[in-house]
Amino acid sequence: MLTLARDIEVLARFGRALADPIRCRVLLALRDAPAYPADLADMIGVSRTRLSNHLACLRDCGLVVALPDGRRTRYELADERLGHALDDLRTAVVTVEADKNCPDAETKGCC
């Protein structure tokens, strides 16, 4: 039973991380290659401050890691299997009906 509870928490945390479009964009960008925050902010089109908050959330969720690189910090997925999981999720959900709303869509927050 303990394993089931842990599995549920891990999946819920992953779901909360994916619930925000900016965090999805960050994860998809990092799926392709590690990146520096300034480059990610430019690529995604958000301020560095806003991106920093999302990176902190993804770090706290255990989905990305920050690696020192000289005077800079580079971000990458915490596990390469996350990239495969993202691809699997993208291809599994092939149709999304625009007129349907997720009951938890109004819930904001992070992991």
Automatic annotation (TrEMBL):
InterPro entries according to UniProt: ArsR-like_HTH (IPR011991), HTH_ArsR_DNA-bd_dom (IPR001845), HTH_Metal-responsive_Reg (IPR052543), WH-like_DNA-bd_sf (IPR036388), WH_DNA-bd_sf (IPR036390)
CDD domains: HTH_ARSR
Protein name per its UniProtKB record: Metalloregulator ArsR/SmtB family transcription factor
Domain HTH arsR-type stretches: 3-100
PANTHER family per UniProt: HTH-TYPE TRANSCRIPTIONAL REGULATOR CMTR, TRANSCRIPTIONAL REGULATOR-RELATED
